[in-house]
C-alpha cells in the first residue's frame, strides 16, 4: 500500500461523505445539524457531523481533486 493508494482512499471517503443527504439520510437517524446543540460539538458525534458538513461545503475542490485523480490514472495506467 503506497501513498497514492492512501490518498485515493481518503478521496473516496470524502466523496462518500459529501453525497450524504441531510433530509433523506441524516435527519431520520438523528444526525441533523439543526437538532444538535451548540455545546455538544465536543463529542465524537459532533466532530463527525462537523466533518460531514465540511465535506459537503467543499464539493468544488473535491470535483477538482477527482478530475486530477482521473487524469493521473489515465496517464499512468
What layout of secondary structure does this protein have?
Elements: H1 3-18, H2 22-26, H3 44-57, H4 59-76
Helix pairs in contact: 1-3, 1-4
Write structural notes for this entry.
With 77 residues, the protein is mainly alpha-helical. Helix content is 69%, strand content 0%. The protein has helices at residues 3-18, 22-26, 44-57, 59-76. The protein starts with a helix and ends with a helix. The model has no long low-confidence stretch (mean pLDDT 84).
Key features of this structure:
elongated; 69% helix; mainly alpha; 77 residues
What gap, in angstroms, lies between the N and C termini?
17 Å
**Number of DSSP strands?**
0
Number of helices: 4
Query: What series of H and E elements makes up the topology?
Result: HHHH
Quaternary structure state of the chains depicted:
single chain
Shape: elongated
Strand content: under 5%
Helix content: 55-70%
Rg calculated over all Cα atoms? 15 Å
Class computed from helices, strands and strand pairing: mainly alpha
Sheet with the most strands? none
The total domain count is 1
Which spans have pLDDT < 50 for at least 5 consecutive residues?
none
Q: Averaged pLDDT, please?
A: 84
Task: Please outline what is shown here.
The protein has 77 residues and is mostly helical.
Amino acid at each position: 500500500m503506497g501513498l497514492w493508494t492512501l490518498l485515493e482512499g481518503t478521496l473516496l471517503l470524502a466523496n462518500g461523505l459529501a453525497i450524504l443527504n441531510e433530509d433523506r439520510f441524516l435527519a431520520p437517524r438523528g444526525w441533523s445539524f439543526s437538532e444538535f446543540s451548540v455545546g455538544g460539538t465536543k463529542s465524537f458525534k459532533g466532530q463527525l457531523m462537523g466533518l460531514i458538513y465540511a465535506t459537503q461545503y467543499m464539493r468544488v475542490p473535491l470535483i477538482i481533486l477527482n478530475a486530477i485523480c482521473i487524469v493521473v490514472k489515465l496517464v499512468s495506467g
